[in-house]
Amino acid sequence: MGFAVRADRDRGSNVSNSKAQNLVFLHSAKQSSTQALFSAPVQATPKTSAPEKVSAPAEIKQLPKAPRLPLGLKLLVGVQQGSTVVTGGLVAVALVVYSWTVYLDKTIARSFQQLETLKISTQQVTTANETLKHSMAQQAELPAAGFKPFEPEHAIFLAPAPVRPSVEAVAEPEPRFSMPHPLGY
Fold first, then answer.
1. pTM tops 0.85
2. For residue 152, is it within any domain?
3. From CA 135, how far away is CA 133, in angstroms rounded?
4. Which residues is 4 bridged to in the sheet?
5. Reduced to 3 states, what is the DSSP secondary structure of residue 169?
6. Is 109 inside a domain boundary?
7. Domain-terminating residue out of 121, 138, 155
8. How far from chain centre, in Å, is Cα 79?
9. Which residues fall within 8 angstroms of residue 51, CB to CB, at 6 or more apart?
10. For 18-53, what is each residue's pLDDT tens digit?
11. Given CA atoms 21, 22, 25, 30 in this order, what sign does their dihedral have?
């Protein structure tokens, strides 16, 4: 007994619409029963007027098996797959480094802007402080402030402290370390 498979291009579900060239012979147990299968007339659809007869193929050919790849070609395919994985990893690393660099640049720019703002505010506070000192000195010089000029008879004199023996500082020599390599250029 033989088996046949329909391979219609129109993918219709009606067997009677199949043409003889669309039947593919897969397996044959007996040649005579196969001929009997294909020698039967195919039912025609109402569109065609004459029934078609199917003849059996003269020889059954097996499909070729997938050829084995040579070792060199297998090695090249493995190298290609490995390099694809490595390339993907390198692209991912490059994206991470790029995003880190952009983030770092933005952080540095923000910190530098804060530093400049602090410098400006420091200058403003120093200017305000000196302006206040100057205005206070001018107000102190006015007679309405009530400050009296320095008079020597109201000075207080203190006795000097007793002399203490001087202590000589012993300087310890700094230990020298040998550097295996220079710190910088």
1. no
2. no
3. 6
4. 25
5. coil
6. yes
7. 138
8. 24
9. 41, 42, 43, 44
10. 555 454 544 444 444 445 445 545 454 555 555 566
11. negative
| Chain segment 164-174, per-residue pLDDT in tens | 888 887 777 66
Q: Give the domain extent around 6.
A: 2-53
For residue 185, the surrounding DSSP H or E stretch is: none
Tokens of 57: 């193929």
Residue at 104 is within a domain: yes
| 52, 77, 137 from 22: Cα distances, Å | 13, 37, 115
Are 3 and 26 in contact by the 8 Å Cβ rule? The answer is yes
Q: E strand or H helix at 23, and its extent?
A: strand 23-28
Q: 78 and 38 in one domain?
A: no
One-letter amino acid at 175 equals: P
**Two structure tokens written together for 105:** 């640049």
Amino acid (one-letter) located at 137 = A
